[in-house]
Design a protein that fits this description.
By secondary structure, the chain is an alpha+beta fold. A 5-stranded antiparallel sheet has the order 2-3-1-5-4. The protein starts with 14 loop residues before the first helix and ends in a 7-residue tail after the last helix.
């Protein structure tokens, strides 16, 4: 019996990544008249952050956040610790106050596909994402109020509702390029 590493070339490619390569990248190149293929903006990473401020009082709350974040993203999150002690918040330096994970590669494309096709449509009274939350360099950050919209989360086993911030980091140079990329990927922005 030999241990073999599975061949990555036979694994199916994420469908959003294929759509980006076949449809979105040529359309963006034509829209912005890029001379070089490397100028076409793409998504490089997605950062999912879950702050747990109540963990200063109850240290078991951070375990639930880690469990939920691991189920949503498919990888183990990093625990964020307090950098300074703040007496008013009963916070000591080094206490766990949140968790975050950075997703890259095929896992990132699959997460974005699940976010756009399954999670966002499950939000009650969803009117679209704000098109004004770009940082000036084509990166987009938005917040979600609860984790229950992801189908990986069993609502009966959640101890409390936790929100999260999701940052989509792109190679776009301007907000207009980033907005065009995300709109073509399927991000439902509100119309002004």
């Amino acid at each position: 019996m030999t241990d073999t590493i599975p061949d990555q070339s036979t694994a199916p490619k994420p469908r959003l990544k294929l759509r980006y390569r076949e449809e979105i990248a040529p359309a963006l190149r034509e829209e912005f008249d890029f001379a070089n293929v490397m100028q076409i903006p793409t998504v490089t990473k997605v950062i999912v952050n879950m702050g747990v401020g109540e963990a200063a009082r109850d240290s078991k709350l951070i375990d639930g956040a880690i469990r939920d974040l691991a189920a949503i993203t498919g990888q183990k999150p990093q625990v964020t610790k307090a950098r300074k002690s703040i007496a008013q918040f009963k916070l000591r330096e080094g206490m766990p106050i949140g968790a975050h994970t950075t997703i890259r590669g095929d896992r990132m494309w699959e997460f974005l596909d699940r976010l756009l096709s399954v999670a966002l449509p499950r939000i009650r009274d969803f009117r679209g994402l704000s098109p004004r939350q770009f940082d000036g360099r084509g990166n987009y950050t938005f917040g979600l109020n609860e984790q229950a919209m992801f189908y990986e989360i069993d609502q009966d086993k959640t101890d409390r509702v936790r929100g999260m911030d999701i940052t989509v980091v792109t190679t776009a140079k301007t907000d207009d390029e980033g907005r065009a990329l995300l709109r073509r990927l399927g991000f439902p922005f509100k119309e002004n």
